[in-house]
Amino acid sequence: MIIEVMAGKSAAVHGLVHDATPFKFSEKDTAAEYFGKMLEAGGYNYYGTEKMYSGIQGCEMEAAIFFGVVHYQRLRHMVSDKWQV
């Protein structure tokens, strides 16, 4: 999921679509390195971290926060939809 966050953020920055196949990259050219270089080219940190500001005090937080764009699919598996008589 960490690679997916880096891929999603770099795709959003550059306006591209990335292939999420897990076997596309090798041990020499890893996905983290590829997307890290793309993030750097877009003006972001190589590791995908960013500085955040406190919403209460307005000062910069000391920790670098890792966040980005991820796709979630809500699956509708409810007991009320599955019961049979």
UniProtKB/TrEMBL annotation:
It comes from the Eukaryota. GO terms for biological process: DNA-templated transcription. Residues 1-84 form the DNA-directed RNA polymerase subunit 2 hybrid-binding domain. Its EC number is 2.7.7.6. One of its GO terms (cellular component) is DNA-directed RNA polymerase complex. One of its GO terms (molecular function) is DNA binding. SUPFAM superfamilies: beta and beta-prime subunits of DNA dependent RNA-polymerase. Keywords: DNA-directed RNA polymerase, Nucleotidyltransferase, Transcription, Transferase. It is an enzyme of class 2 (transferase). Belongs to the RNA polymerase beta chain family. This is DNA-directed RNA polymerase. It comes from Timema cristinae.
